[in-house]
Amino acid sequence: MIQTQVLVIGAGPGGYVAAIKLAKLGKKVLLVDKHKLGGECLNYGCIPSKALIALANNVHKIKKAKEMGVEIQGLSVNLEKFQAWKNNMVGNLGRGIQGLLKGNSVNFLAGEAVLTGPRSAKVKAAGGDEEIVFEHAILATGSKPMEIPGFAVDGQWVLGSKEALDLIRLPESLLVIGGGVIGLEIGTLYAKLGAQVTVVEFMSQLLPGLEPDLAAYVLRSLGKLGVKIYLGAQALGYSVEGGRAVVKLKISEGEAQMSAEKIFLCVGRRPNSQNLGLEAAGIEVDNKGFIQVNEHGETTASGIYAIGDVTPGPLLAHRSSSEGIAVAQAIALPPSPHPPIPPSFIPWAVFTDPQIACVGLSEKEAKEKGRPVLIGKFPFAASGRAMAAGEPEGFVKVVADKATQKVLGVSMVGPEASDLISEACLAVRLGATIEDIASTVHPHPTLPEAFVEACEAAVGQAIHILPPRPQIAT
Questions:
Q1: Quick one: pLDDT at residue 472?
Q2: Between β-strands 128-139 and 2-9, what pairing exists: parallel, antiparallel or unpaired?
Q3: Is 444 marked active-site?
Q4: What is the rounded CA–CA span in Å between residue 206 and residue 219?
Q5: Chain-wide mean pLDDT for the chain?
Q6: What are phi and psi of 145, to 5 degrees?
Q7: CB atoms within 10 A of CB 431
Q8: pLDDT of residue 339
Q9: What is the rounded CA–CA span in Å between residue 208 and residue 179?
Q10: Within a 13 Å sphere around the CA of 97, how many CA atoms are in the beta-carbon half?
Q11: pLDDT tens for each residue of 353-401
Q12: Which residues of the chain have pLDDT under 50?
């Protein structure tokens, strides 16, 4: 029998971060995972996908550089060599986590953990079953891709996100089922590498849930890449004919068929809440399988917490990590738990082309709450840095409270938006005003100047764009 103060199940970006934080706060911690350190994010998601996106972006920039006078012949991509590099890079990061756990005296046990009661668990490990007794536990088991009838992932014809990121040969054509974040990120990168990509989305908009004016730039970019888009379409099934997958679609005009060398299925994710022994511990889930927690991350079983994708909320690695730290502090520093993280403080970053990022309230959300707001918008086409880099597509939009001029939210679509959003995250977190941003000197020429100008545009003071013409009643 192993006794520990805190048992953490799941070693992804939520679990291992929580375990290290707990150890730093003086707790004895046992971290258990049946797979690799770093979870889905490090091994099959965030990191591998961004590596492949970086490769595709480099190829695309080289091709576009012809407009600037750069002429290159014989450009080719060796995906097999890239995969070897990527796997080595991911392995190094995994070994880095292993070193952090060891350096912080976090005990790690490889195996499958199942709760057997409110203070006990069993771990099926290679060396045999281990009985665990704990004072507190954190469930950080993440999520997994969903499937739809007729499209079981087999790695040959139908690819999931893992299989799509492990290809060693560029498919001639790729049919993407699902026009959400993952589908468009991976679909875009393969289009840049030269594949003929088709996207089938059930909803009437790409990137459902995001503001239409943000998604519009991505739609335009996909068109330039030759990507075919079917909105309001449903994939019904497929057959294999002549060495290709022939997919049957239901579209507004009726039914249609199209063929592709590979199908990439990405229609959402579901929580890994099965086979955890939740009933034995008295833990409740909702009708979608998400573990129910209170504002401090505690489940319906006192002393057992859950974080990240296995709980309701956006399926984002940085949400998992921030919740892991908050829950660790709630366990180690009672009786004053760490203040819950408001959902509006959690940013989004979408690595399409152009990138999309947002934090806080959108213009629509603010107006739905009945808050009088100021809106400032600045296009990257008026940014010297964006123009010089040949990336003038997109804008920065600021939503501010009309009375106090505090920044309530920022959304952007354009070059390096995933990096630019961090300054906006701090502004929203600290309740900064338009004047706070406008009076902060930014280096020139840089992309973050667009945030300053968007703030100034909200009060009609932007320097590098003209104010909108007043509306004349007729």
A1: 57
A2: parallel
A3: yes
A4: 7
A5: 95
A6: -65, 145
A7: 12
A8: 72
A9: 8
A10: 23
A11: 999 999 999 999 999 999 999 999 999 999 999 999 999 999 999 999 9
A12: 474
Residues sharing a CB contact under 8 Å with residue 20, sequence separation 6 or more, in sequence order: 100, 101, 104, 106
pTM above threshold 0.85: yes
Determine phi and psi for 36, rounding to 5 degrees.
-90, 150
- CB neighbour class for 252 (10 Å; exposed up to 12, middle 13-18, buried from 19): exposed
Q: What is the pLDDT of residue 335?
A: 75
Strand partners, 376: 398
Cβ contact 266:199 at 8 Å:
no
Please identify which of the residues 136, 296, 338, 444 carries the catalytic annotation: 444
Helix residue ranges per DSSP H, 104-211: 161-164, 181-193
Residue 343: predicted pLDDT: 86
Residue with tokens 């459902």: 208
Helix ranges, 122-245 (H): 161-164, 181-193, 212-224
Taken in order 34, 38, 40, 42, is the CA torsion positive or negative? negative
Contact present, 394 and 412 (Cβ < 8 Å): yes
